[in-house]
Amino acid sequence: xxxMSPASTIVxxxxxxxxxxxLARLAPLxxxxxxxxxxxxxxxxxxxxxxxxxxxxxxxxxxxxxxxxDVALLRTRADLLHDSGxxxxxxxxxxxxxxxxxx
Length: 103
Description:
Layout: E1 10-14, H1 20-29, E2 39-44, E3 47-53, E4 59-61, H2 68-97
Antiparallel strand pairs: 1-2, 2-3, 3-4
């Protein structure tokens, strides 16, 4: 039986200072070291159930709940954030390469 009701709300967001206690609770549950750097959190109805470090890609999750989907959502969001940052650089480079040649 899933612990997620049909009306459950899932939020993927960047961690804030107020998440410190929740992240400290998740890490030992998952037998993992605390995450470092910028962190994304998967939250169900206001409760953090999984988190992912954007620094090194490590994830932690509550092993007593079905969180594989949460971790997949976190990884997808991290990939989108990474790709959007990478997409900006080539455009600047392209503009620089397209400048008219000097005579």
